[in-house]
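Hi support team,

I submitted a single chain yesterday and got back a structure, but I'm not sure I'm reading the token output correctly. Could someone confirm the output below corresponds to the sequence I sent? I've pasted both exactly as they appear in my results page.

Thanks,
R.
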Amino acid sequence: MTTPHELLMKPSQGTSFSIVGDIVTLKAVSEDTNGQYTLFELRVDPEIGPPPHIHHREGEAFYIQEGELEFHLGNQTVIATPGTFFYSPKGHLHTFKNITNQRAKMLVWCMPAGIEEFFAEVGVPVDDPDEPSRPATPEAIERVLAAAPKYGIEFLA
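Hi R., thanks for writing in. Yes, this is the structure output for that exact sequence:
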């Protein structure tokens, strides 16, 4: 274990990746949190969202900052607006989609840490998190689907 230390991230700081229509900006990763959690900012382009999936290694918490997202948690569907908070425990089915024509933004905590390694493997590094994400090409989708089992992520559709 590493010794805990202070961490300061200003807006737009952090390592960013474009991943099939999303921009992920890492704010705190395993080495910063002693493996307790990963925190990232997620920018979701219009009409984009992952298929239903389950994280078998981590729980996920979501805090909506901008835009509207349709969330499905188990058998519940909610339209999430700024200020909405969700938690999806490890092993629970969930998905979300940006249902507007504007980019949405949320903070996502994954507990424990480690999902940042998945993002680094499947994502394309970007310099500016405000830039448009790369399109969800068949190759990019295949890269995500191929790597997901290695990180305990199961896509159901």
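A quick pointer for reading it: The first strand starts at residue 15 and ends at 19. Let us know if anything else looks off.

Best,
Support desk
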